[in-house]
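User: For documentation purposes, I need each entry recorded in a consistent format: the amino acid sequence on its own, followed directly by the corresponding structure tokens. There are two entries in this batch. Please keep commentary to a minimum and don't merge the entries.

Assistant: Recorded as requested. Entry 1:
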Amino acid sequence: MFQYKIPISLYIHMPWCVQKCPYCDFNSHTVKNEPDYNAYIYHLIRDLQQDVKLCSNRTVSSIFIGGGTPSLFTAELINQLLININKIIPIDKNAEITIEANPNSVDAERFNGYQQAGINRISIGVQSFQSDKLAKLGRIHNPQEAINAAKLAHTLNLHSFNLDLMHGLPNQNIDDALYDLTQAIEIKPPHLSWYQLTIEPNTLFGSKPPVLPDDDKLWEIYQQGHQLLTQHGYQQYETSAYAKPHAQCQHNLNYWRFGDYLGIGCGAHGKLTQTNGQIIRTIKTRHPKGYLQGRYLEKSYTVIQEDLPFEFFMNRFRLFEPTPKEEFEQRTFLPLQTINKQIALAIEKGYLTDNKQHWQITESGKLFLNSLLEIFL
């Protein structure tokens, strides 16, 4: 049975983009004819009404509106959505509420409208500040639009804002990568997501791979970039995220700490712990056509106990903070003895250290994360 209430977040997926990026394997669909955005909001609300019974009367601690391109939706529609969500499941008064935005789809009026609707954090998809790199990535904004959007975010009374930035881009050298980082640092975002481009199979890059930097160059980019960010007061708190003090993304922290989350919208995933200790995962219909016909749930299943240690640590070791031992018991409903042998092996290999209260991933554990996680399979 529940020893305490596991935190719960809400993820909302907006599936449309003006143009599909060649590296993107997210569930996004190119706008051809103008989608019925009003109808989609209606179905999001109905989707949530069906899922709320799985939440055990909890209060939402964070909301993340992702995509796709959520900033294609007007502030009025986002306001309507948040008002109705709060009627269905209470939103904590201090909840972090994020919306993703493309630099060319925002302006002062829309940003202000989002804030008035209740948005207090904006994540801006910059990816690069160099025109040739943006063109190769299929992005439809230019460097100045990215700078303007970030500067605009500074003028609002937001809880925080994030810039998404990539490295390891086609034909990128170390100077290119550090230039992008320097541009971002000069804007002074509270949070930076800085992650390496990976080629995914079901993408245009997957079928026609570009020339990417080799492993030695990637390592040099990471080392020099990490040093630059650290020098400017950014702390790496998870694999691909850096933040100023107290500016970590609370929504992502809940994911990585194996908290619960509702997922509504096309292709959204959810994880919901029940009062009997069972963990249910939900997957929503991917295509907008079916979703707009009211077919929300594609699949749901209960996670078997044997899989819980791997699932817990796959998330938890993405964070670089210590992992409390009691958190493993509270969120998997398994005793520590279940993983004694695996933990002992991880410590022996130098991937973890431990004390009475917590486990700590080592530098070796970070470098060989896949090998560490395989111990728990």
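Entry 2:
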Amino acid sequence: MTGPGHASGRLGSRPVGAAPGEAWAAGVHALDLGGGAEVLLAVPPGEPVPRPLLVFFHGAGGTPAQSLGAVQQAAAGRGVLVLAPRSGAATWDLLTGRVGRDVAVLDAALQQVAGHAAVARCAVGGFSDGASYALSIGAANGDLFEAVLAFSPGFAAPPAAVGRPRIWITHGTGDRVLPVDRCGRRLAAAFDRSGYDVTYDEFDGGHVVRPEGVNAALDRWLG
């Protein structure tokens, strides 16, 4: 499944546009990608018009169902499709030292989505390790993702730099897993210095995804 460019974090699929195949009905669909890949797509209710698409990465040891649990309700209320992949190992390939497999799975998933769901625009997000991955893969694919929504990220190591997606980062001041000083604050400042449009939201709390944070992130992206 891995192809040229995946080792540099680059995605070849471009799902933006009308879907050539039969539109998927509202609900949660398990994509058939083979090779043990697990990816869920949540389609909101309503007519199959072009919709925004959010790719959301879970934290270490998480699942696609947990990703949907964090963002699906707020996304559905805004007519947003949510694509939730599962990492091939306990966490994402970039964090284990070699980019490739998880990027390839996402590329294949985006290609399958393009066949059955009309997509108007794309963003990428995630929680914890998934937020670190979103910042890294988002910065490498700014020609596809117009925004990155990062909930309590630890770091960013883009394997490439293409385009300038808008960056939204939120972090709890009481986070004991990924402390705010060396994670959220540092990352927001670093992306700002690099010329990105950064919104940084700090809250009184720990290592969590808050519903109000999800609403704020979606509104920042879609607004």
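Summary note for entry 2:
Helices lie at 64-77, 101-116, 129-140, 184-193, 211-222.
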